[in-house]
Each structure stands twice: as C-alpha cells, then as structure tokens.
Amino acid sequence: MITNRDQLAGRRRWVVKIGSALLTADGRGLDPERLQNWAAQIAALHAHGCQVVLVSSGAVAEGLARLGWPKRPASLSEVQAAASVGQAGLVEAYSRCFERHGIRTAQVLLTHEDVAHRGRYLNARSTLLRLLELKVIPIVNENDAIATDEIRVGDNDTMAALTVNLLDADGLIILTDQAGVFDSDPRRNPQARLIDQCEAHDPALLDGAGATGGALGRGGMRTKVLAARQAADSGAVTLIADGLEPDVLARLTRGQPVGTLLLPGQRAKRAARKNWIAGQRRVRGSVRIDAGAARVLRTAGRSLLPIGITAVEGEFRRGDLVACVDAEGDEIAQGLANYDAREARLLIGQSSERIQGLLGYGGEAEFIHRDNLVVSREH
Ligand SMILES: Nc1ncnc2c1ncn2[C@@H]1O[C@H](COP(=O)(O)OP(=O)(O)O)[C@@H](O)[C@H]1O
Ligand SMILES: N[C@@H](CCC(=O)OP(=O)(O)O)C(=O)O
C-alpha cells in the first residue's frame, strides 16, 4: 500500500483528468498550446511504459466558443447541444496533438449507466482495457449529449474516479487551475495553505473544499476530494495539481513534491469491481462446478472456465450476477457471467477453444473472469 510519494515511481496505470478551467483560454474555446503540452507529457509517460486514460472535460466550453455563445446557457438542451458541438472539436484537437507523437487516440463517451449497469460495465471495461493493450489513449468524457439530469454523473472528477475503479488503475491525477488542495478555497482566502499529503478519507479535508467551480467547471474542490475517496476505496492514490506547472505529469508520477497527494489509507484494498459485485444483491442464476474448479476458485483465485461447469440453473444474461455452487450445493463464489444462460448450457464441460465453434462467435475464454469473481466465505 502506498504511504508516501517515494512509492509512486513505477506505478503503471494512471487516469489523468483535465478540467474545463484549465483547457480553455479565458473561455475562448480550447487552448491548443496547453493541449499540445499535455499530449507531449502523456507521450513521455507512454514511452516509459505507463498506460494512461485521459478523462477530459472541455466539450461544453469548446461548444460555446464554436457556437459564439458568451456563457453557459441555462437550458439543458442548449448545454447538450453545445457539448455535442464541442466534443467533436475536443477529440479532434487531442488526436492532432497525439499524432505528432505517433500515438492514436479513441473517444469513449460514458454515461452513468455504462458504469452502473452490469452488462455495460463489463463492456466499458473490456473496451478500455483493449485500447490500452493497443497502446491507444482513450479520451473519456461523459456523454453530455444524452445524459439527462437523472442519470448523469455530473462532473468529470467523479467520472475519472469511476474510471479508476473500472480499470483498477494505480492512480488518479486531477489537473486543475490550483496548485492542489488548500485548507480553504484559495480564491477566497489568500492565507489558504496547500496540503502536501493526507488521507483521502480525512474528514478535515472536506471542510475547506468549496463546492463551486469556476465559470465553466462543475464541481469545485469538493467533487475532487470525493473522487479521491472513491479512488481510495479501490486502493488508488490521487494527486491533485496545477496542470500548468511545467512537466507536472512526469514530476507527479516520479514522486516529486508537487500538488497534493491523497492516500488510500488503511482501507483494505479490495478491487472496486469486487466491492461492486459484492454489493449486487440479485443473483440471477447459478452454475454447478466440479471439484477441480471449486478448488482453484477457492484457493488459487482463478477464473471459472466453461470446462469446470457441470450444470446451469436459471435464466441470466451476460453481465448478470451468477452463483457458483459445488456438487453438494454449497456456494463457492459469485461473479459476473460472460455468457447468458442459453450460451452457458451449450458450453457445459467444454474447453475454451471450442467456444467459437459451439456458439458461432468468439468471446471471452472464461465463463467468469477472476477479476469479476468474489469467493464466498468458507462454511
Ligand atoms: N480547498 C480548496 N483548495 C483548492 N481549490 C479550491 C478549494 N475549495 C474550492 N476550490 C476551488 O475549486 C476550483 C477548481 O474547481 P473547478 O473550477 O471545478 O476546476 P476544474 O474545471 O479543474 O474541475 C479552484 O479554482 C478553487 O477556486
Ligand atoms: N462533460 C463536461 C465537463 C463537466 C465537468 O466536470 O467539468 P470540470 O469540473 O471542469 O471537469 C464537458 O466536457 O464540458
């Protein structure tokens, strides 16, 4: 577990969030020089073997500039229209910047549903992981064009934390227009002091964190601290720093004293995904597994392959929570199924190489991947 900055070097998977306040040149749309600068910094991290997911705001700000609107409109549909116009520009601008470094980018627009709904959760995760394998930089933003108030995540600090949880990232870096987290809002209090490091769950942290952002931002420091707490719950550190500080990303990831480090603290690291799985109350079906599968699930933390399944009960869909029971009917584990019940019945006792032939399409080799499996307590 990370307890200080020296331990940051060598961490591999980072989610970097860039807020509206930083991206725009005085509300006049995106600042191309800044984007170029971050792209160069991210390219350098890439070259050192880091995987980076970029969560970038700026769609609304860029849309306002493109439409010639002087300020954020009050009506939701106008904000959504601006976001749609601006998102195209945002991704275009990033892809141009990264191209110079020979790096491809991908646009990933997520909604609350994508990170909360079982099937889509798996889809979002596998797409992002595949992009990282392909050495592409995913550029994530909330899908503002269709997210209504009821279903929106609302701010990208939270979206970035959800992305950390989704991918089990090592750390979250939030770049903003302040040097880090202060003990009170530095915009209002010139005496405010920068916090160097602290536990994300320290109750005092929220006392000084204001909830209002700048003219274009959404969350202020409060959502950043709450995001750090969510990241902490899956064992990740959060660094909050000034995005205009020279070489900020390299310095932060090397453990130099820049910005604020928020630590996961004593919380037991249990992958967020596993917490989330454990929190899903409704088991939709079950698979009976043989003694060998039961043993490796219980003791070796392995995935459940179709070959270990001896029977399938109930009706469930891909992404549903399914119980794995042994020959005596004792529950060994619960996890998210990669195949629905009909497919599972066809795969009983089969080796993974046969999946393509049996179903007519290929998919995951595992019926439940070990990352999506929570072993039940011993009886
Ligand atoms: N304790 C604090 N420390 C630092 N900044 C704070 C604090 N409380 C409130 N803020 C405000 O939060 C702002 C950053 O939030 P926001 O405008 O939403 O940025 P972003 O667009 O980067 O998400 C800062 O400009 C600052 O005025
Ligand atoms: N999704 C919105 C950004 C919302 C948001 O969280 O902004 P910020 O607090 O500046 O990161 C956009 O692209 O404009």
UniProtKB/TrEMBL annotation:
PROSITE patterns: GLUTAMATE_5_KINASE (PS00902), PUA (PS50890)
Entry keyword set: Amino-acid biosynthesis, ATP-binding, Cytoplasm, Kinase, Nucleotide-binding, Proline biosynthesis, Transferase
Subcellular location: Cytoplasm
Record-listed E.C. numbers: 2.7.2.11
Keyword field contains Transmembrane helix: no
Source organism, top-level taxon: Bacteria
Pfam families according to UniProt: AA_kinase, PUA
Protein family membership: Belongs to the glutamate 5-kinase family.
Function recorded in the entry: Catalyzes the transfer of a phosphate group to glutamate to form L-glutamate 5-phosphate.
Descriptive protein name: Glutamate 5-kinase
Originating organism: Salinisphaera aquimarina
High-level lineage: Bacteria, Pseudomonadati, Pseudomonadota, Gammaproteobacteria, Salinisphaerales
The gene coding this protein: proB
